Amino acid sequence: LLGGKGANLAEMVNLGIPVPPGFTITTEVCGIYQRTKGLPQEVVEQVKANVRRVEADMGTNFGDVENPLLFSVRSGAAASMPGMMDTVLNLGMNKATAEAWIRRAPHLERFVYDSYRRFITMYADIVMQVGREDFEEAIGHMKEKRGAKFDTDLTAMDLKE
Asked: Is residue 71 a part of any domain in this protein?
């Protein structure tokens, strides 16, 4: 019971097409969660085992500050619904990981803060159901304060603030 994205990724792997390591949680598990507001311990253990497998494949660890493993969490459905399904990118990113990346690659500071800002916005909106409006308003205020027309006109320090 895979959604379209999960099924297509599995087919790509079967065809030998390079696909980053990951795993799929079936639509059946989603149904269980929606009905019970929880997951069976067996599913929790399978998710943990799959995270450990991806960690081994990538040579990094989920939650490691200095070399974190980040996940993209994509929803899927049996039928295609462009624009209707949510995605959370950079799950595992936090203030400490952002600061560690900047220490290792100072030239990527703006990129790192922008990625962190986007993660916070996606997570708050999709997982916590806090609307994006507050975040967009904050960016709007910063652009106004700096005389910037586009988000890309903001500096790393603007994004950090």
From this structure: no
